[in-house]
Specification:
Structural class: alpha+beta
Organism: Cognatilysobacter lacus
Helix content: 25-40%
GO molecular function: isomerase activity
Protein name: Steroid delta-isomerase
Order of helices and strands: HHEEHEEEE
Strand order of the largest sheet: 2-1-6-5-4-3
Oligomer: single chain
Keywords: Isomerase
Pfam families: SnoaL_2 (PF12680)
Number of strands: 6
CATH class: Alpha Beta
Strand content: 35-45%
Length: 111
Amino acid sequence: MSPEAVVQRQFDAYNRHDLDAFMATYRDDARVWRMPATAPALDGGDAIRTFYRESRFNLPTLHAELVARTVLGGKVADHERVSGLGAEPVDALAVYEVVDGRIANVWLFGP
């Protein structure tokens, strides 16, 4: 599966709030970085699963809109507009690194 297809599968699962399908796109040792971090905000599949279960997929109006996508080798950069986190949608940039068909790292830029 191409890196773009992996990220699209993750994106679709996010919008369905399907935690198992979402996590199936991540490696067990995946990390999520909130830039300009020097250490990961979420380190490992268990931490990612817990965060999204307790802090994202419990929000009934959570939804991401894909504004733009760029693919360069194993990296996929998405400009996303996320609603349901607060009163107004927020824009964010997520850069996904796909290794062996699963997401290994995510660098998040935005509020």
